[in-house]
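Module 6 notes. Inverse folding takes a fixed backbone as the condition and produces residue identities as the prediction. Think of it as a translation problem where the source language is geometry and the target language is the twenty amino acids. Below is one complete input and output pair. Work through it position by position during the lab.
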């Protein structure tokens, strides 16, 4: 079953001489439970594509469907709620909230959704990511790698249907990267989650079920 579909997606920035075709008629279809890697050189349109797939930005034309929802038909408010319930985002620059502790950051999406976190599951993830002693710390007191692991825990704890990750291992050493990928695969199998992950690391891309290559805003098979 297809969980995520993008059809004839275009995203243009600027105009006239400065027009950038960041996405130029991109079609992507992701099956439920698949682990998809998006690969391509810097500036090829990877982040733009991921942002469109997660409804973080509006395409110039074309559409994205997640489960039975047309992203472009939703209001900003509907989209915010939908993202919180169904999508876990992991960004390269972590996006942790500086005035919240690691624990508060991790539970934020669940709490905003009006739910209580599954504490046993949370502690399992935290332990796997070796953040046990860090839960009451503020992000600024963590190393870059620890902050990224906290951001990953935050994305996983609500058990979202889809995880969208933009270079999640970009700032991690290779051992930690391998652990993070192993955790993503483990939880995605356990909770039947779909992962779409940008990476420029070929070894990591090899661990995905499918690789999508993007060059100059176009998909290359
Ligand atoms: P990647 O993630 O593969 O490095 P991006 O999706 O970030 O690539 O960018 C694709 C192209 O779109 C690049 O040429 C980039 O400069 C351009 N671009 C991305 N975001 C913007 C923006 N907000 N305004 C103008 N141009 C942008
Ligand atoms: Mg990028």
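Target side of the pair, the amino acids:
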């Amino acid at each position: 079953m297809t969980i995520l579909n993008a059809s004839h997606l275009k995203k243009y920035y600027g105009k006239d001489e400065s027009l950038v075709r960041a996405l130029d008629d991109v079609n992507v279809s992701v099956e439920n439970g698949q682990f998809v890697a998006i690969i391509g050189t810097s500036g090829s349109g990877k982040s733009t594509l991921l942002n469109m797939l997660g409804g973080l930005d509006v395409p110039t034309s074309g559409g994205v469907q997640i489960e039975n929802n047309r992203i472009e038909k939703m209001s900003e408010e509907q989209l915010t709620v939908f993202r919180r319930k169904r999508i876990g985002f992991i960004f390269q620059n972590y996006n942790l909230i500086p005035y919240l502790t690691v624990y508060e950051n991790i539970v934020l999406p669940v709490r905003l959704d009006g739910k209580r976190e599954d504490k046993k599951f949370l502690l399992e993830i935290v332990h796997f990511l070796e953040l046990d002693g860090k839960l009451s710390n503020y992000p600024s007191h963590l190393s870059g790698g620890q902050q990224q692991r906290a951001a990953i825990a935050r994305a996983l704890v609500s058990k979202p249907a889809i995880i969208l990750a933009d270079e999640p291992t970009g700032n991690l050493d290779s051992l930690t990267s391998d652990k993070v990928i192993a955790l993503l695969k483990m939880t995605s199998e356990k909770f039947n989650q779909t992962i779409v992950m940008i990476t420029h690391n070929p070894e990591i891309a090899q661990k995905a079920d499918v690789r999508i290559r993007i060059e100059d805003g176009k998909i290359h098979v």
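Reference fact for the lab report: Residues 13-14, 20, 22, 40, 42-48 surround adenosine-5'-diphosphate (ligand 1) (CB under 6 Å).
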